[in-house]
Structure formats: C-alpha cells, structure tokens
Amino acid sequence: MTTLTSPPGGAAIRHPAPPAATGRIGTPRQGGTILAIPALIWYAVFMIGPVIAIFVIAALHWPGMLQPVSFAGLGNVRTVLDDPVFWDAMRNTAVQLAVALPIMIVCAYMLGYYVAQKPPGHRVIRYLLFIPGLISTPAKAMVFYAALSPDGLANGALQSVGLGSLTDAWLASPSTALACLIALDVWSGIGFTAVLFAARLDSVPDDLGEAAQLDGAGHWRTMWRIHFPVIRDYVGVVTMLQFLWTLFGSAQHVLLLTQGGPGSSSTTLSFLVYQKAFIAADLGYSQTVGVILFLAGLVGLLAIRRAFRQNY
Q: What residues form the membrane-spanning segments (predicted)?
C-alpha cells in the first residue's frame, strides 16, 4: 500500500508503505523452549528423581547398600511409628521450630529495620551481621563447643561472677542439649536474615516512614504498622527459607555437637534420617522418616505462605 502526499505547489509524491510486520506481537520464540530443555532435564533427574526415590525406598526392606532388597510395604511405617526414638525426634523438631523460628524472624526483622535507617556505621554493621553466614558449620560448632564445654567460657564466666552453682555440662545434659542447638541455629541465622530484611526495607519509600512520624508514630509503631505490612510477603519468603534450613539442616549441628544425645534428647528428624541410613544401615526406616520429613516441610511451607500472604 502506498500513500500520496502533495507538497505546496508541487506534484503528488508516492511513498511506499512500511513493510507489514510478520508474526504476532508477544508470541514467545520457539528457541526459548529449546534452550530450557537442559535445565528441565537437570531438574527432573536431580530434583524430581530423588523425591520419587525417597518414596520407593521407604517401601523397601534394605538393611545396607550391599545387602539384598525386599519389599516391605507399610512395614517400615509401622516400625517407625512404634519407635519411641522417632517420637522423641518429632518432639525435638517441633520444639526447635517453635522456638528458633519466631525468635530468629522477629529479632532479624527488628535488626534489619535498624540497619535500614542508616545509623552511623551502618555499612560496617551489615558486614558484621553477615559474618556468621561466612563461617563454615564445623567452625561454628567448634565455637559453641569451646563456649559450652564443662571447662568452657560459659561455665568460666558463671564461676567468675560467683554463680558456680549454675554451671553445667551444657551439651551433655538432657535438659540443655537441645537448647544449645537452638541457640546455635538462632545465632547462625539471625545476622544473615537481618541483612536480607535490611535490603528489602531499603526499597520502601522514605515518604511512608516520614508521614507516619509526622503523624506522631514512633519507630516501634512505624516498624510494625507501616513497614511490616509493606514487606509482609517478603517476610513470608524469608520465613519459609529459614523454616526449611532449620527443618532439614539441623542434622549437621546435631552430628557435630551432641550426636543426638544424651539418649535421644537432642535427636531431630533430619539427624534421625542420617543416623538410620549411615550408622544403623537401615535405609527403609531412614527414608520412611524422610517421607514424613518431606510431608512436614510441605505442610509447613503451605501454612507459612497462608499466614504471610497479603490481605489486599
């Protein structure tokens, strides 16, 4: 199609029409799907595959990697449910999540809000908060072992202030071993989580806080009534991440500090999976607990997502 234009005092000039656009706007290119195939294969093999394997092995009687395998059906489930150690691990895991997660999220949010206000030296504070995340797990365990051993820093400090009667073998006492593990979880996670919250709070417009303070709101009310609702969905995401890390990652702390003892007073579900698989060589029992752990994580994620979803 051509168009005619007539300049003043001149003849009409023909202009060729622009070439017609080929294809529909917004149609995704087929090459994008092809490029995603390697990632999809990787995800299916190394993510979906192990999940399926957990359910398969949970239905087997497998007393070791080199031992013959037989079908157990629901026998492993009955064995697990009849084992008092499993119920101790369930209770310990529930206590660990119920104590560590709220303390970690609330304190990290408050600390992140403080850093987001950019006090003097706030850049240095961010680096200091990140230090626990840079320390390896064995190093963190050694720090806590040095502090909580019978001749460690904690008992030495109590004796120096005249409270020697309160000294204890913290990691070897059934009443305090789990509490020490919870303290390690909180200490190792609170700084990293605070940095995440500070980074998200930096993107909140300053006008919101300034308007609230002009209306007479203090920092406490501004923190919880103004900023928290704005980043509520992000708090939910961080809470889910810390929930998964505490639920599935506690085995390494238990392994390095208490070995699940004394007795089963500090045994968690994730450590029980490791213990039954690599120490007791009962893979069927181990993966049955793994299935329960998987279902608990799924239910927990859905509950957290529902609790922190935006109300608007």
A: 34-62, 94-115, 127-148, 176-199, 234-257, 277-304
**Rounded-to-integer distance, Cα 89 and Cα 275, Å:** 12
Helix axes 49-58, 283-307, angle to 10 degrees: 130
Longest dimension (CA), the chain: 110
Q: What is the pLDDT of residue 273?
A: 94
Q: Is 141 inside any structural domain?
A: yes
Task: Kindly state the DSSP code that residue 28 receives in the 8-state scheme.
Answer: P
Q: What DSSP element (H or E) covers 61?
A: strand 60-61
* 132, burial (CB in 10 Å: exposed 0-12, middle 13-18, buried 19+): middle
Q: How does strand 13-16 pair with strand 60-61?
A: unpaired
Domain assignment present for 206: yes
Distance CA 214, CA 92 (A): 47
Contacts of 76 (CB under 8 A, 6+ apart): 58, 59, 60, 61, 284, 285, 287, 288
Check: CB of residue 228 under 8 Å from CB of residue 235: yes
In a domain, 112, yes or no: yes
CATH, residue 191:
1.10.3720.10
Whether pLDDT at 22 is above 70: no
Which residues is 3 bridged to in the sheet?
A: 15
* d(C-alpha 168, C-alpha 176), whole Å: 9
Domains: count for the chain:
1
Residue 77's Cβ-count burial label (10 Å; 0-12, 13-18, 19+) is: middle
What pTM, to 2 d.p., does this model score?
A: 0.83
In a domain, 132, yes or no: yes
Identify the domain containing residue 155 by its residue range. Answer: 84-308
Q: Who contacts 286 (Cβ-Cβ below 8 Å, separation ≥6)? A: 272, 273, 274, 275, 276, 277, 280
